[in-house]
Amino acid sequence: MTTLQPIAAASLSATVRHLNCGLWLGKSACNYHNARRLSSRGTLRRGFTVSMSAATEPVEVCVKASITTPNKLGDCPFCQRVLLTLEEKQLPYDMKLVDLANKPDWFLQLSPEGKVPVAKLNGSWTADSDVITQALEKKFPTPPLAAPPEKATIGSKIFPTFIGFLKSKDPSDGTEQALLTELTSFDNYIKENGPFINGQAISAVDLSLGPKLYHMEIALGHYKNWTVPDSLPNLKSYMKTIFSLDSFVKTMPSTEDVIAGWRPKVMG
Ligand SMILES: N[C@@H](CCC(=O)N[C@@H](CS)C(=O)NCC(=O)O)C(=O)O
User: SUPFAM superfamilies this protein is in (predicted)?
Assistant: First the structure.
């Protein structure tokens, strides 16, 4: 795969550098993270601890740009999954915002399929959020986000059934019920096994599902006047927990972008 010179990519894209602890103060600026932040993830330690990012160059990652506001992150749930992984691992990253409606040549060179996210890992550009997050886990195992393989598919039918209901024009075609069936099954799972999919600690499976549930909430609220029923309290509190994580708030798209992003599917 062609590797583009970073300087060329940077000059042709909106590049936003993130360091998880505010100002860019040089490579060692993020050496220390306070105990409060770590304790929120369940790995309580007193005082200060050295983070992986001390020795790490920012990970370059191409993500969807906003379609409503210049120079802002857009509404791709797969991109947010990768950004959440970087945030939860407290890794610095360098976001390149890509206008998917007008893909620049430099982007098509490093992502021939024209899809985001793509991240530069071990010197080469890697596509697909599954592949990227697994590679990040391997390269930066702390804190661990991997879940056992049998948990990887928990909640995985929610996104496709949500899209089926969103696109449906016939209220009696069973698509709403299909979504409710999946959501009920997830609610029961969390009731028995929660608060997260892998139990007490957040994992990669939550980081994949969270952005999709966020899209579901906004898109169905807007286009179908639909909300998660009160009969699913465990799902509701799961969503509330995920959506209020620092990492989620930092990487979430605007409501306007989510609505605009789904419009062609609803109208089509
Ligand atoms: N399976 C891929 C899906 C990525 C994907 O579909 N990304 C969309 C944006 S959300 C995209 O780049 N679409 C290309 C386009 O809109 O032209 C992943 O997990 O990364």
Answer: GST C-terminal domain-like, Thioredoxin-like
42, part of any domain? no
Structure confidence at residue 7 (pLDDT): 34
Is the CB of 78 inside a 6 Å radius of any atom of ligand 1? yes
Residue nearest to atom 12 of ligand 1 (CA): 115
CA dihedral 246→251→253→255, nearest 10 degrees, is 0
Flag whether pLDDT at 250 surpasses 90.
Answer: yes
Q: Is the CB of 81 under 6 A from ligand 1?
A: no
Structural domain includes residue 70: yes
Does residue 35 line the site of ligand 1, with CB under 6 A?
no
Structurally, the chain folds into a number of domains equal to: 1
Q: What is the CATH number of the domain that holds 215?
A: 1.20.1050.10
Distance CA 240, CA 255 (A): 16
How many residues comprise the chain? 268
In the chain, the amino acid numbered 117 is P
Residue 79 annotated to the active site? no
Whole-model pTM: value is 0.86
Confidence of residue 143 (pLDDT cuts 50, 70, 90): very high
CA dist., res. 175 & res. 107, Å (int):
37
Place of tokens 């009920």: 184
2 belongs to a structural domain: no
Per the prediction, the chain carries an average pLDDT of: 86
DSSP 173-200: SSHHHHHHHHHHHHHHHHHHH-SBTTBS
